[in-house]
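Supplementary Methods, section 5.1.

A reviewer requested that the exact input to the structure prediction be made available. We therefore reproduce it here, unchanged from the version used in the analyses.
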Amino acid sequence: MADDVLERVRATGLLEPQADVLALLSGGRDSVCLLDVAVELQSRVRALHVNYGLRPGADGDEAFSRQLCERLGVPLAVRQAHRAADATGNLQAWARDVRYAEAEREAGGALIAVAHTASDQAETILYRLASSPGRRALLGMEPRAGRIVRPLLGITREETGAWCRARGLAWRDDPTNESDDYARGRVRARLLPALEAVDPRAAANVVRTAGLLRDEAEVLEDVVDATLAQRRAIERARLAEMPVALARLVVRRLAEDAAGGLCARAAARLDDILALGDDGALDVGDGARAVVERGVVRFEPTPRLQDD
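The structure derived from this sequence is encoded token-by-token as follows.
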């Protein structure tokens, strides 16, 4: 099992020998496995642990991370994070934002390795499918996004646990991962087991489907590239004549290029944009506005509201 995990991670090419890597280390089984695999693959690895102080066991996680890194001979940076008592919003989203911000500051020019597994991938896809309609919800997390790499996306949570046991490595369990207080905890504890009761291969099938859709998404992006031919606008009449699926993709691409970020809602406004006629404007959400002038559709950032 251990040799198999090592070879599968090696095959991803995400943890090259002598590559500078900053591994995010929580102390859980997946991050412990990631750190040890990176050492075995002879990456020049450092670790980062963020102590949010949110649980009674947070200081124990930090102490464990220090001991593990000392054992593996890995330099460790520890950062303390404190959330304001009156802060609102999603707690897990706040922790994620803090973690990645600290990683960017600490990494320098290194890759940032995150211990997301195939099990996390299945849970993420199911969560997004429930909360975010659209094809992108089914694509899951990318193995590499900029400097962020996920070498364990082809490895299950059961396999990371088996790696740690085979290597004599302990880990820390975070009880909030299974808590019903968080949507992802409910997906993990209830939804996935229900699907696996239908077919034990459910999680693997979800991940496999995401991989196929990601391959197909690359083809669709090439079609959009060819359709736009590097232009930042398109004739409304031509947009209306396209197959609806392609027209939506073109609208989304133009909106996202203008807004400089994801515009998940733009594609759903295709009919409204076509209804503008040869002249008009429409905010499509996510910071983008469709503008039609003399029958040509383009997008621009949504103007900011002026203070009185």
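The first helix runs from residue 2 to 12. These observations are discussed further in the main text.
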